[in-house]
Task: inverse folding
């Protein structure tokens, strides 16, 4: 979302699968190398990847990384063979909306390659944030930098057209699914964002009713007050930014999601898990982590870690989490939105659950993903 609206809006989702499939199988279980090294040594990168950029998303397709983040009034696509070098990546504005219904506050764009076409999912509104809805664009060109993205339309998530943001799609056992963040009912005096899932008939149409699989009910999911900065005038409980991740052996479907207000330092990731062979539309198939699986690291000055995505190294041996964070508890006055994209390698434990570790400090040298010079 656009930081200029942070005092008006109900949530902070400004803004992983590989192509349409989820990341799966064959990942390295070796630990992350966090040690600092001489700046002159090649093959290393530092966080942040860009100085600003909330809701980062990256996908690897045919050896090329495609990257997006929230820009507010347009959709911009980056491409590069080195996702850790976004500062030098080629970029192109691929969509500037003209219709009033989706012209404002474009949040959390994601690009996916599904059934021989490219699709970009994003949320937008008509100038009233309470009217945020999901939209999808299509480009049938093999190269998303060529051809043209055209509007396929709004994705209707329920009969009452409740608020919906942060759509992401994945495939499992031959079926296409969408997950997103939405309201159960329209806000009155308290806003509650929940995580929903539905099966899709095609990349722009749902084939089932929405199913609620998570709502912010745990203490760590319900931080909305900010001791150091702005606090909303009403209660806002947040579950948003769902990101699917198939486990390393393919046994589970994990969904990482962001909880608590992104305007606070407590913005953190939780994890929903279902057996890959279970009925994903049955809420009982999903279980929730009782504590955050990735959160702020005040000791090294990294706050508000959330709205993540996932990508793999070019040689498919390493898994990476991509997320945004701040260097301060809140945005310094006059600095605007300082959330910036960051990436680090993660591993898997013996139970096939991801181990994200802790956010590393700014400017610590990290080894580039395997397969990148």
Result:
């Amino acid at each position: 979302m656009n930081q200029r609206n942070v005092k008006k809006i109900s949530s902070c989702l400004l803004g992983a699968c590989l192509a349409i499939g989820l990341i799966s199988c064959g990942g390295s279980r070796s630990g992350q190398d966090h040690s600092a090294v001489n700046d002159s040594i090649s093959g290393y990168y530092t966080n942040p990847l860009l100085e600003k950029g909330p809701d980062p998303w990256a996908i690897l397709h045919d050896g090329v990384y495609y990257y997006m983040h929230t820009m507010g009034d347009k959709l911009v696509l980056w491409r590069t063979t080195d996702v850790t070098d976004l500062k030098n990546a080629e970029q192109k504005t691929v969509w500037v909306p003209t219709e009033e219904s989706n012209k404002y506050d474009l949040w959390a764009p994601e690009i996916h390659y599904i059934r021989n076409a490219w699709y970009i999912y994003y949320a937008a509104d008509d100038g009233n944030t309470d009217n945020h809805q999901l939209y999808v664009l299509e480009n049938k060109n093999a190269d998303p930098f060529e051809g043209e993205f055209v509007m396929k339309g709004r994705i209707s998530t329920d009969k009452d057209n409740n608020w919906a943001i942060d759509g992401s799609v994945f495939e499992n056992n031959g079926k296409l699914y969408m997950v997103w963040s939405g309201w159960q009912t329209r806000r009155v005096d308290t806003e509650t964002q929940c995580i929903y899932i539905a099966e899709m008939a095609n990349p722009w149409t749902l084939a089932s009713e929405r199913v609620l699989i998570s709502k912010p009910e745990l203490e760590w999911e319900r931080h909305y007050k900010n001791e150091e900065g702005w606090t909303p005038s009403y209660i806002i409980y947040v579950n948003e930014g769902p990101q699917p991740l198939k486990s390393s052996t393919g046994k589970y479907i994990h969904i990482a999601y962001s909880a608590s207000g992104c305007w606070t330092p407590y913005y953190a990731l939780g994890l929903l898990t279902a057996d890959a062979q279970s009925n994903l539309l049955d809420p009982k198939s999903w279980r929730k982590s009782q504590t955050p699986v990735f959160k702020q690291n005040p000791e090294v000055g990294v706050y508000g870690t959330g709205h993540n995505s996932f990508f793999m190294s070019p040689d498919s041996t390493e898994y990476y989490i991509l997320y945004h964070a701040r260097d301060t508890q809140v945005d310094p006055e006059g600095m605007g939105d300082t959330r910036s994209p960051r990436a680090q390698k993660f591993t898997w434990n013996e139970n096939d659950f991801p181990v994200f570790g802790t956010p590393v400090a700014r400017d610590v040298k990290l080894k580039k993903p395997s397969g990148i010079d």
Notes: The radius of gyration is 19 Å. Confidence is low (pLDDT under 50) at residues 1-21, 23-40.
